[in-house]
């Protein structure tokens, strides 16, 4: 084989051939075995360049070019395609040779015709994608008008996202992002757009769960090269001495390359004191890394919209332009909080005494006490289970794990008492430092 070309270039020379001699075919197959089966898989002289360069940025633009056999990306684990296998799908030769053939025998070289299926598409909700996945099984020998294999790879995450209570506005926003990325519209010649994302919302609205789903989903799609998700706070990034903050921040960024760095309550990184050199050092390094590694890093920040805009984005003028994706998580309604509570009960294999044990009006009356939404529902359930344990002690086993309205009311009273106790402790600490 000519060493100046790649293995794929060599294969493509045979594209126009309709017939070849038995000897020529044997030589061809030997070349395939030597150059593909026995050489170092990462050698670009036969497989084509598709590994990332030393800076961690991706040097090619197509989905296949993101493939790296040494990557822990879930997409790489699920996807067996390489430059050679992609070529092989559209070029086929005789794989089984008759041993009795004369050396001058002629062997036909055929190009298989792939079955073509056009899927009628109208995507308005995540459910529309799930419907396509259910109706169309992915087959290797079929050519589709959409990337059906990738959709099947993220089926679990799509179901998880769709099953989350409420969040209709957020789901639509993530759907837009998904369709944009899966078509590689974010990738241009020798460049890639920012993937960094903001989740606006109150505590307890599921921001961490959403960030994890996004991370796994884009890892499986190959948009992110590694299945990495790291949630950090101010203490993970900022140190107490000048110079140490830079080391801590860069170490965290290095850990997250190829995946997601999630910063909840990101406004805690930005100090209202403009003389805080530690905060500035952290944010400046983060801002630079978001640009340097934009092909290979997704930073997701979360918190209240007003506070993020007034603190975090004001800390460095470059931050604003790096977060082009901004998703708003709406506050839960009383009926949605009721559904969250019910879901948590059933997930833990508990049940209710009656179907109407929980009523929407119960949550409507107390909604102002549940400022942290899903998080408060989890705490309420914990207290409900505690008072339930006291009530059924020594009684019939059939009563265990069956929640009554009295359990919920008593659990709510415990919820309020502990909430008041926490507030008192906060007030005491506040007065100490005044």
Question: What order do the strands of the largest sheet run in, or round the barrel if closed?
Answer: 8-9-10-7-11
Query: CA-to-CA gap between the ends?
Result: 80 Å
Q: Beta fraction of the residues?
A: 5-15%
Largest sheet data: 5 strands, parallel
User: Quick check: average pLDDT?
Assistant: 82
Q: Count structural domains.
A: 3
Shape: globular
Helical fraction equals 40-55%
Spans with pLDDT under 50 lasting ≥5 residues? Answer: 41-72, 93-97, 427-434
What CATH calls the topology of the largest domain is Rossmann fold
Structural class: alpha/beta
Number of alpha- plus pi-helical segments: 19
This entry's quaternary arrangement is single chain
Number of strands: 13
CATH architecture annotation name of the largest domain: 3-Layer(aba) Sandwich
CATH H-level superfamily of the largest domain = P-loop containing nucleotide triphosphate hydrolases
Question: Mind telling me the C-alpha Rg?
Answer: 29 Å
Describe the protein in words.
The protein is of the alpha/beta class and 434 residues long. The protein has 3 domains: 7-113, no CATH class; 154-328, Rossmann fold, CATH 3.40.50.300; 334-432, Helicase, Ruva Protein, domain 3 (Orthogonal Bundle). 49% of the residues lie in helices and 10% in strands. The chain contains 19 helices and 13 strands. The protein has helices spanning 7-12, 22-38, 44-47, 74-78, 83-90, 126-135, 148-153, 155-163, 168-182, 207-221, 234-237, 244-256, 277-292, 305-315, 319-322, 334-347, 360-366, 374-392, 405-432; strands spanning 19-21, 106-108, 115-117, 142-144, 187-188, 191-192, 197-200, 229-232, 260-264, 298-303, 325-328, 351-352, 402-403. Strands 8-9-10-7-11 form a 5-stranded parallel sheet. The chain has a two-stranded antiparallel sheet with strand order 1-2. A two-stranded parallel sheet has the order 3-4. Strand 5 (187-188) and strand 6 form a beta hairpin. The radius of gyration is 29 Å and the shape is globular. Mean pLDDT is 82; it is low at 41-72, 93-97 and 427-434. GO terms for molecular function: ATP binding; ATP hydrolysis activity. This is AAA+ ATPase domain-containing protein. Belongs to the CbxX/CfxQ family. Keywords: ATP-binding, Nucleotide-binding. InterPro entries: AAA+_ATPase, ATPase_AAA_core, CbxX/CfxQ, CbxX/CfxQ_RuBisCO_ESX, P-loop_NTPase.
């Amino acid at each position: 084989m000519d060493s100046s070309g790649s293995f794929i270039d060599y294969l493509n020379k045979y594209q126009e051939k309709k017939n070849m001699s038995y000897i020529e075919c044997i030589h061809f197959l030997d070349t395939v075995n030597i150059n593909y089966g026995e050489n170092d898989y990462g050698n670009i002289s036969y497989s084509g360049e598709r590994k990332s360069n030393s800076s961690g940025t991706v040097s090619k633009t197509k989905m296949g070019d993101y493939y790296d056999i040494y990557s822990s990306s879930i997409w790489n684990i699920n996807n067996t395609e390489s430059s050679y296998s992609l070529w092989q799908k559209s070029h086929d030769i005789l794989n089984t040779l008759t041993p009795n053939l004369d050396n001058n025998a002629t062997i036909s070289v055929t190009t298989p015709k792939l079955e073509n299926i056009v899927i009628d598409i109208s995507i308005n909700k995540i459910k529309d994608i799930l419907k396509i996945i259910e109706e169309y099984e992915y087959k290797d020998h079929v050519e589709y008008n959409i990337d059906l294999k990738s959709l099947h790879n993220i089926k679990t995450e799509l179901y998880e996202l769709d099953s989350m209570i409420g969040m209709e506005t957020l789901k639509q926003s993530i759907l837009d992002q998904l369709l944009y990325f899966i078509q590689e519209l974010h990738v241009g010649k020798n460049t890639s757009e920012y993937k960094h994302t903001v989740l606006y919302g109150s505590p307890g609205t599921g921001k961490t769960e959403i960030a994890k789903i996004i991370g796994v989903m884009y890892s499986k799609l190959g948009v992110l090269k590694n299945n990495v998700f790291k949630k950090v706070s101010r203490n993970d990034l900022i140190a107490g001495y000048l110079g140490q903050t830079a080391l801590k921040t860069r170490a965290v960024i290095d850990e997250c390359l190829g995946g997601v760095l999630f910063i909840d309550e990101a406004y805690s990184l930005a100090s209202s004191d403009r003389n805080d050199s530690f905060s500035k050092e952290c944010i400046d390094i983060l801002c630079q890394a978001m640009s340097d590694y934009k092909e290979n890093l997704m930073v997701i920040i979360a918190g209240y919209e007003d506070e993020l805009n007034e603190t975090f984005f004001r800390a460095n003028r470059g931050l604003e332009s790096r977060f082009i994706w901004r998703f708003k998580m709406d506050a839960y309604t009383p009926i949605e909080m009721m559904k969250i509570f019910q879901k948590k009960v059933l997930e833990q294999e508990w049940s209710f005494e009656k179907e109407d044990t929980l009523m929407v009006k119960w949550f409507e009356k107390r909604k102002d006490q549940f400022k942290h939404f899903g998080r408060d529902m989890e705490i309420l359930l914990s207290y409900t289970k505690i008072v339930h344990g006291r009530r059924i002690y020594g009684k019939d086993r059939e009563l265990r794990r069956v929640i009554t309205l009295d359990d919920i009311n008593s659990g709510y009273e415990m919820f309020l008492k502990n909430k008041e106790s926490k507030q008192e402790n906060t007030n005491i600490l506040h007065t100490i430092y005044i």
